[in-house]
Amino acid sequence: MHVHLVLPGLLWPGKALHDTAFDLELPALARFFGRGRSSWQPPLAVEDWLCREFRLPKGETPAAALRLQGEGGSPGKGYWLCADLTHLKFQQGRLTLAGEALDIAPAELQQIAEAVSAHLAEHLPGYAEFVATGEHGHAYLRVNNVPQIATAPLSSAIGRDVQATLPHGPEAALWARLGNELQMLLHSLALNREREAHDLPGVNNLWFWGAGSLPERAADGENHYDVIFAATLAATHSNRSLLKGIAAWSGMPMHELPGNADQLPRMDLAGRTLIFDEALLLPAQELDAQAWREALARIERNWLAPFTAALFSGRMASLRISALGEEAGLDLRIGRRDLMKFWRRPVALYRIAPP
Questions:
Q1: What is the pLDDT of residues 149-179, one digit of tens each?
Q2: What percent of the chain has pLDDT over 70?
Q3: Distances 257 to 67, 91, 261 between C-alpha atoms, Å
Q4: 7-11, 135-139, 190-194, 292-296: segment of lowest average pLDDT
Q5: Fewer CB within 10 Å: C terminus or N terminus of the chain?
Q6: Can you give the three-state secondary structure of 262-294, one letter per residue?
Q7: Domain edge (last residue) among 197, 212, 227
Q8: Which pLDDT score is estimated for 220?
């Protein structure tokens, strides 16, 4: 069994890493850092990393069409943007996107969809359709005219100054004006006054990103997964809708993320398994040190310690860890022979830093 464990949010910002992690007991992770073969990479948003890993066409990640398919929608050949329902808040003197789930009720979602659809039909050239799925506040916009903007994935915008991540390009002014109008529209809805009365975060913003259409498949009838991976990926485990969409598009086997390594189903020893655990991502985005520490302790207990035992026993042939962070990415590979190099001392997480 060859396992690829993806951990977005593991690399806490360098200036805060020591104070956040210096006293954490993470023997399995430290052993992997000390004995594995590592390579540093430039930082990538989670969505862009996934599309690069699965060799989707270069350019802006077509996350909207892929994620919509992953949530049971039918993007067809249309051109889609994510138009995610989010909460803007003031934090440390700046306007930022909050990352917490908004828990939008079906009646609220219907009210939002009706109001936004009417506004877009009147004010957006080339408007075709607005779809709100309710899945984590996800919504989608289909347009007939390809927008001339470059956008930032939602994962790279959460917790950051909104002004630094707004769309840019020839039509940036148009979309900035549209965004302001939609903020005022959402703010005026009765549902937000009711949410405020119940101490719930307001639904006061739409975040546009991930524009594109479903990528073309191989012309010979084989899908992208067959061509690139030669059917070596035995299974993928994740709760992320975008990855589910990539799986649906490519024919890749897909499963929900289990609670720990013991709950993984029996897998083909000749195959590879990808495990995408994003429990660290939101705490890292919002610099919530306590939540991040608790999530990392669970990952050590549920994944890393069992994988150490599996490598020592020979039940696992190799482990690859992809750690994604705001400042850098780290790819770590370790096999049983690497793990047996006892003369290599463990290296604590807080000592890890890009060259």
A1: 999 999 989 988 888 889 999 999 999 999 9
A2: 92
A3: 17, 32, 10
A4: 135-139
A5: C
A6: HHCCCCCCCCEEEEECCCCHHHHHCCCHHHHHH
A7: 212
A8: 45
Same domain for 75 and 157, yes or no, is: yes
Report how far residue 239's alpha carbon sits from residue 258's, in angstroms, rounded to the nearest whole number: 9
Residues 236, 203 share a domain? no
- Stated as kind and residue range, the H or E segment containing 96 is strand 94-97
- DSSP at 303: I
Domain check: are 342 and 226 in the same one? yes
Q: For the CA atoms of 77, 81, 85, 87, what is the dihedral angle to 10 degrees?
A: 160
Q: What is the pTM (predicted TM-score) of this model?
A: 0.90
32: its two tokens? 């992997």
Q: pLDDT band at residue 228, thresholds of 50, 70 and 90?
A: very low
3-state secondary structure of 217: coil
The verdict on 203 and 71 lying in the same domain is yes
**Residues 223, 182 share a domain:** no
pLDDT tens digits, residue range 241-271? 999 998 888 788 889 999 999 888 765 445 6
Alpha-carbon distance 130 to 271, whole Å?
Answer: 40
CA 346 vs CA 103, 193, 246, 340, 341: distances in Å:
42, 53, 36, 12, 11
Instruction: State the pairing for strand pair 139-143/79-86.
Output: antiparallel
Q: Is there a single domain that holds both residue 291 and residue 201?
A: no
The phi, psi pair for 231, rounded to 5°, reads 60, 30
Q: Tell me which residue range forms the domain holding 27.
A: 2-57+219-351
